[in-house]
Amino acid sequence: MSVLRIFSYLPNPRIAKATIAARLCGVSLEVRGAPVQELQDWLWDFDAHPLSVEERDALRHCVRTGRTGFTSALYKTDAFLAAHPFGAVPAAFDPSGQTGIFESNSILRAVARLGDGRVPLYGSDAYSASRIDGFLDASLLFARDTQLYVLALRAETVSAGLHAAAQQAFTSYLSGIERALASGAGFIAGGTLSLADICFAAELALFHNERVHHGQLHRAGLAPVLSDGVAAEHPLAWAHFGRLCAHEAFAPDIEPYLEAFGKH
Question: Into how many domains does the chain fold?
Answer without folding.
Answer: 2
